[in-house]
Amino acid sequence: MRCKRAHRLRALPVPHHFYLSPALDVDERTKKHLDQRSLQFARFNGDTVLEATGNYYVAYPREQIDSEQRVRQTLEDVLVPMLRVLVAQFQTKPDVGGYVLEVSHHVRGKVLGVPWETAENVALALPQHSAVKFVAAQNSSECQALLGEVQIFLNSKAITLRPTEKSCCMT
Fold first, then answer.
1. Distance CA 83, CA 100 (A)
2. Pairing of strands 98-111, 47-61
3. Which residue has the higher pLDDT, 138 or 150?
4. First to last CA, the chain
5. Angle of helix 80-90 relative to helix 128-136, nearest 10 degrees?
6. How far apart are the C-alpha atoms of 4 and 110, rounded to whole Å?
7. Cα(82)–Cα(67) distance, rounded to whole angstroms?
């Protein structure tokens, strides 16, 4: 889907480089030369959803940031701002039953003293009515209550985020 919506997503002010991409875990030099159209309609849990994919060029240190913190940070930095843009544009469209957003980031670590880096994929899936409430949440309590309506995946495995003082939907 080529449109102003994709331009708005590419223009999001994020702490690290972010590119829309139909493929995940693409190195940044290659990504700059690939087709960036990554918005499409898909089927998820029986609904027609707007799907967006991209690559977030950050590498979290595995020893300092655990998997839940990495997921939360990518949610805060990229996925929730993406969701806000898409909900603003599609919340009144009856054909859009929800959203599935997936972003790849990297994790750095060492194995037997040898440095390595690998990709992790974080996905956020939610129905339209939950997305509207999620982006409109006014405080941390409202957002935390809505996390039960949101499906979050790390490398295709469903996960549950524990409640925290700082909510991932409040930016």
1. 9
2. parallel
3. 150
4. 27
5. 120
6. 42
7. 21
pLDDT digits (tens, 9 = 90+) for 66-120: 999 999 999 999 999 999 999 999 999 999 999 999 999 999 998 888 999 999 9
d(CA 113, CA 160): 32
Is residue 54 within 8 A of residue 21, CB to CB? The reply is yes
For 120, list phi and psi in degrees, rounded to 5.
Answer: -125, 145
**Segment holding 61, helix H or strand E:** strand 47-61
Compute the distance between CA of residue 39 and CA of residue 2 in angstroms, rounded to an integer: 8
Task: Give 152's strand partners.
Answer: 124, 159
Contact assessment for residue 71 and residue 154, using Cβ atoms and an 8 Å cutoff: yes
Type of residue at 35? D
Model pTM score: 0.83
Torsions phi, psi for 65 (to 5 deg):
-130, 115
Strands (E), 62-164: 98-111, 114-127, 151-154, 157-159
How does DSSP assign 88-112, residue by residue?
A: HHHTT-TT--EEEEEEEEEEEEEET
